[in-house]
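Hey L., structure's done. Input below.
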Amino acid sequence: MNKTKHILFAVGLAGLASLASCNSDDTYESEPLDFSGLAITGFSLKADRTVLNNLDSVFFSIDLVSAQIYNADSLPVGTKTNSLIVSISSDAASQMKLSFEGENGTEEIDYLSSSNATIDFSRGPVKLHMVSGDGLHERDYTIRVNVHRMAPDSLYWAEVNRAQLPGSIAAPSSQRALRMGDKAYCLTSADGGRTCSMAESANLYDNEWSSFTPSFPSQVDVRSLTATDTQLFILAADGHLLASADGRSWSDTGEVWNSITVPYGSTLLGVKTAGGKYVHASYPASAADGAEVEDRFPLSGNAGAIALDSKWSETPQVVTVGGRDKNGRLTGATWAYDGTSWALMGDNLPAAEGYAVAEYTVCRTDTVSWRVRESDVIMAIGGRNGVGTVGRDVYISYDYGLNWQKAYDELLLPKYIPAIANADLLVLSSVMPRPAQARGMAGDWTAMPVKCPLALQELPLSRGNGDWDTWECPFLYLFGGDTADGTLSPYMWRGAVNHFRFRPLW
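Output:
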């Protein structure tokens, strides 16, 4: 039995495909499309477990306007497509002939008389020639069975996409990277925050940075650098809170804090001491200031800030994970702030300090329909546990930090990226593909930017404006981090889930 699949009736393309006529007042009227009995109404592959489980469930799109038939989500890597049986439904064709490249050259099969004949899709697209029932009309369709050359749900960290940490310090011992607005900032130091270099970039993909020396009035805690929507903040070694609009000129706010927790919009949240207790603080000050810090709330080593809109709150939330509490104990708790108060969200992430965290989108292939499904997650990488071991595991949460699980193998760090703690993870989208550009300058990526081979341009996504030559790809940038031997990794890495690197078909 043929399975009716999704048919694209020129939605959004009517202006290109419709027949138009001009009247006396220069307006246009569209006439309906007429395929004269040559419309394909269903296409599928017949079941064959020797090829792939659930092969007959593979989803095919039928574009009647451009006469294209294809599986929008490519089949798994290694799927053999040289001997497939197709199932085709049509209105009332009198002829349906399939032609393809076989082992012995071009072959042709009369589908109406040999519907169970095997077709070779491995050597390129298959052509379907149709003749209408009355014999007056003909049409040719192109059929493609797309197969991945790489796993779409893998996190691609290419060794060739490594670069030196930016800045004027040749061998930094500490670093902090973050984003404010449309710019990325990276602060480095080699002497405990006495001498620092700041670098900023509006084009992280091409690794274009400008470096300068910030005018800190005193020694600073490099890892405390934080950005709200409008300002940069950092703690001096004596706890004084410093602020800057551009990273160059810094001034003392008059506040003395123990630690910076996270930004919340244009407000900075932190912890200070009052009456012999650790209390919550904010800058600018708010009515919630002064509440005693909860027993398991992190005072240091917590991982960044993830801003979320969730179904559990009418206001935006900011999430932070891990760190050490006021008693010096490591925690794996996830805390969230909703603009008024802090709340414990979950506590099943391994206790550690120095996680690198970011909100990202991962992909899993459904092995029933063989469709790739996207899920928004919080990702946590690395960290240092209670016995001082630096990790390389990746954890993900599908529910805003309520629950965490170790990521599936395809998302784990490759062996050439060291185990790290206190690294920084940024996510910025870039237009793909990028033109080839000359490389080799100091500080640049060590090779050409990621560019999809033609063979990989088979997996379509629906996330663009219809321009098939360019599309947005969210890249992960992993900065620095303390390695197992206590030294700073001097590199930053660029990666992305393969699914987003492939060219969209639709």
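Residues 235 and 241 are 5 Å apart (CA to CA). Residues 1-32, 435-443, 447-467 have pLDDT under 50 and may be disordered.

-- N.
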